[in-house]
Amino acid sequence: MGLFWGSTKKNEKDDDEIKYNEETTIPIDLQDYLNTKESQLSNREFKSLLRRQSENVKTAKEAELELGSSSNVDNVDNVDNSMNIINDKDGNKIEIPKLPSSISTTNSMKMPKNYKSFEFEKFRREHNEKESILINCSEIQNSFYQCLGRQKLWDRISAISKLDSDECTKLADFFIACTDIQKKAFLTFDYSTLESIDEMKSASNKIDKIFNKNFKNIDDVREKENFLNYTKDLRKEREDFFAKYNK
Questions:
Q1: In the chain, at which end, N or C, are there fewer CB atoms within 10 A of the end residue's CB?
Q2: Spatial contact of 34 and 73, defined as CB atoms under 8 Å apart
Q3: Percentage helix, strand, coil, to 5, in the chain?
């Protein structure tokens, strides 16, 4: 049902200047118009409709005021909590951001389980199979670099022309053998499927320990019996590892 009142021309006054009935929160001129006309609704129904409309408007205004008030409080609290105020040498106040404290950092980690998962993912990225192999073989690699540093250019050229490998060449071969053998050992331990930092550390240490026990240089790697002993030790350590971690 459409209602029209007053002039059809546009009111020159702003909407903010319209006077409202405080009890019904509807324009006074509309209220006066309704008072002089007969409605199709009964008096009881009409009053009920006005009451519901008034309550809806009042509730909406109260909610808007509460939202604005809470937002202002939150903003002030956030500013107060995130800023420090200090005085410079001239006495002027300067606001600087607060650094997170150890307590706030700890509180932000509400679930230890999530933090443990984060630690594990970080460790797995930094100690993946390739990195762990290089760490285990790093002593041999370092010895090779030191050998090159001691060797003169002419000695390097002479070593290339000789049939027998020199010390540096043997160290280079030993380093390559170390990475190749340990790569296969990591696959044997199913390193990429391990589910905790403790398991990964244990597997890496066992693999390195077995390698160092059986091979001291490239000649040991080429010795068939040494390699067979290494294979036996690796199999035994793998079985013990799987039994310990229920694999």
A1: N
A2: no
A3: 70, 5, 25
